[in-house]
Design a protein that fits this description.
Chain B: One of its GO terms (cellular component) is plasma membrane. The complex is a heterodimer of chains A (324) and B (320). Chain A has 324 residues and is an all-alpha fold. Chain A has helices at residues 2-29, 33-37, 44-54, 60-72, 86-121, 126-140, 143-157, 182-215, 218-225, 230-267, 273-282, 286-314, 316-321; strands at residues 170-172, 175-177. In chain A, 77% of the residues lie in helices and 2% in strands. Chain B is mainly α and 320 residues long. Chain B has a single domain, classed as Orthogonal Bundle (MetI-like fold), CATH 1.10.3720.10. In chain B, helix 3 (36-53) crosses helix 5. Chain B is globular and about 80 Å long. The chains are: A mainly alpha (324), B mainly alpha (320).
Chain lengths: 324, 320
């Protein structure tokens, strides 16, 4: 068990080192950093000074090490486009993305599990079949089209909800939140639905198929034979045993929510990290791209690690299997 | 079904049917004829692909030839006569007076081209690495599959965005618009090879231990020949299924990237670029600029997806 954990942690670190190498190479080899940072009017002395300052004459390994050292401390250099430290820009933008991701994650999980149970129990009911058919359409619909559709219905036609931005935000010690104002909450609704819908259908389908699988087991039949109430059979016995795959998939989906936030944020002009990243790609703002790459890799690798370790904590059967 | 030959060299008493009849009666096509969903989606895909291929013949206007454009025609609603020029357009025109129907036809060309090329690239990379990993084994396999695992933990669209960003950084600014389509193919293709590699590796591991491979080894065929001529043909059917589903994903990925402004440039608009342009007119009431490209994209993605689903079931007898 311990050996497995250590091996997984080392693997994760290796992955991060490789991603760091990619990010660093982007920094170093895409275009000339000097060109990017100094304007047209520059002197040879300026160039020499900056070369020295950035350590561009150091050996590759030394530069890579310095980059990693900076990255660990949250120092990713200065954005080519905005002229501000990247870490500062990201810290400004992060609350918007995290709030959006949290709300849509909770929506997806709540409705996904609820509808999954519903469609599994009422397997051949009309409304359950309708939900399943709709979910198929939901999976095929690209995220950005869902966003546009919602904007068209609720902003253009009905005029109920704003179509872009975060509304009014409140500052609480460096964290800007839109939870506390009415316009902020209103602005959150459409992006959160757009972002959460796909994950919701995914979780729903997973819960449904797992639930159907479990409901077929002998111990469920036995529970029924014992005369337990239907509710007790469904929730205490069946649901509990479907949760292992649901937890792992949900964990992995947490990362995709942050990644797919890029699309939602662009549709709704939501001032988060995703929009920042897209703009960075458009303008080839390498430091921002590299920082985002590092940040999101740490997150994905971390989530994967936690999910893998959770497996062991939740399902005792795996602990025995993992030993050979 | 039983009295029909499965292969030409089966000895049979009945009159040998023509090649065409044989194909028509095959198990695969029998499945196809029984599934209305498959037939409808196949028809939609064929219609769209053909109209994209023959776009220059079908399109009433060439939207990229400035000589044929008239700015006065801008914002003509679908089916109505323009108030200045009295020209009518089947699906209306956009802000620059380009016929929406024609831009969709040409846009679909780019969407489909990027989709097919990206899947082809992913397939070539995935099959090659999968065959090598499965057949050679050892540390080669470990490295290839570890890389695949790591890439799989990141969503494909994110990987594609990053590759697009990096490749864009490497292309000189003056070539960026021209190269965008190729960069897009590279990005989507590289983000999608893992599925192919995993499936091919799995199938290769199974095939490797079979007798015909042993026999091929014994008569001294080279590993390269065994992989290419003996194993590859036997692992192709799952590849076909993944390729179809990948095509739908690639089309959506391309549209998403272009919609986000990190894909096909406005000079070579794909369906995603057209939707991006159309979104700008959502609030001013020119709904047709947005609606028709969106519907086309949806029809394309959905029907390829359904076709892939059907193919998966049809090629897997266990599911019947």
């Amino acid at each position: 068990m311990l050996a497995y954990i250590i091996r997984r942690v080392l693997q994760s670190l290796l992955v991060l080192l490789v991603v760091g190498l990619v990010a660093f190479s982007m920094f170093r080899f895409v275009g000339d950093p000097i060109d990017n940072m100094l304007g047209q009017e520059r002197t040879v002395a300026d160039i020499e000074r900056l070369r020295d300052q950035l350590g561009l004459d150091d050996p590759f390994v030394v530069q890579y090490w310095n980059f990693l050292e900076g990255a660990v401390q949250g120092n990713f250099g200065i954005s080519y486009r905005q002229g501000r430290p990247v870490a500062e820009i990201i810290a400004d933008r992060a609350p918007a993305t995290l709030e959006l991701a949290a709300v849509s994650g909770i929506l997806a999980l709540g409705f996904g599990i609820g509808l999954g149970i519903f469609t599994a129990i009422r397997r051949n009911g009309f409304s359950a079949n309708l939900i399943m058919t709709l979910s198929l359409v939901g999976v095929s619909l690209p995220t950005f089209l869902i966003g546009i559709l919602l904007i068209y219905i609720f902003s253009v036609e009905l005029g109920w909800l704003p179509s872009f931005g975060r509304g009014e935000t409140t500052q609480i010690g460096g964290w800007s939140t839109s939870f506390l104002t009415e316009s902020g909450l209103k602005a959150l609704i459409l992006p959160a639905i757009t972002l959460g819908l796909y994950q919701m259908t995914l979780i729903m389908r997973l819960v449904r198929s797992e639930m159907l699988e479990v409901l077929r087991q002998d111990y469920i039949r036995f529970a029924r034979a014992r005369g337990l109430r239907e509710k007790s059979v469904n929730f205490r016995h069946a649901l509990k045993n479907t949760l292992v795959p649901v937890i792992t998939v949900t964990g992995l989906q947490l990362g995709s929510i942050i990644a797919f936030a890029i699309i939602t944020e662009t549709v709704f002009q939501w001032p988060g990290v995703g929009l920042l990243f897209i703009n960075a790609i458009q303008f080839v703002d390498i430091p921002v791209m590299a920082a985002y790459l590092m940040l999101i890799s740490v997150m994905f690798v971390g989530i994967n690690l936690i999910v893998d370790l959770l497996y062991f904590a939740i399902d005792p059967r795996l602990r025995i299997d993992g030993r050979h | 079904m039983t009295d029909l030959p499965q292969s030409p060299d089966t000895p049979i008493a009945v009159k040998k049917p023509s090649r065409l009849q044989e194909i028509w009666a095959s198990d695969f096509l029998w499945q196809f004829r029984r599934s209305p969903v498959a037939m409808v989606s196949f028809a939609v895909v064929m219609l769209l692909v053909l109209s994209a291929v023959f776009a220059p013949l079908i399109a009433p206007h060439d939207p990229f030839n400035p000589a044929t454009l008239n700015l006065m025609n801008g914002f003509t609603p679908p089916g109505e006569a323009n108030m200045f020029t009295q020209d009518t357009f089947f699906l209306g025109t956009d802000d620059q007076g380009r016929d929406v129907f024609s831009t969709i036809l040409y846009g679909m060309r780019i969407s489909l081209f990027v989709g097919f090329a990206a899947v082809l690239l992913a397939m070539v990379i995935g099959i090659t690495l999968g065959l090598i990993a499965g057949y050679v084994g050892g540390w080669t396999e470990t490295i290839i599959m570890r890389v695949a695992d790591v890439q799989l933990t990141f969503p494909a669209i994110l990987v594609a965005m990053l590759i697009f960003g990096i490749a864009k950084g490497f292309t000189p600014p003056e070539y960026r618009d021209q190269m965008a389509i190729w960069v897009l193919i590279l990005a989507i293709g590289l983000s999608d090879w893992v599925q192919f590699a995993r499936v091919v590796r799995g199938a290769t591991l199974v095939e490797k231990s079979k007798e015909y491979v042993q026999a091929a080894k014994l008569i001294g065929r080279t590993p390269f020949a065994i992989m290419l001529r003996h194993i590859l043909p036997n692992v192709l059917s799952p590849v076909l299924v993944i390729a179809t589903i990948s095509l739908a994903l690639a089309i959506i990925a391309e549209a998403t990237l272009s919609f986000l402004g990190v894909g096909a440039p406005p000079t070579q608009p794909s369906l995603g670029t057209l939707i991006r342009i159309g979104q700008g007119f959502l609030f001013s009431g020119e709904w047709w600029i947005l609606l028709f490209p969106s519907i086309t994209l949806l029809a394309l993605a959905l029907s390829v997806n359904l076709l892939g689903d059907w193919l998966r079931d049809a090629l897997n007898p266990k599911l019947r």
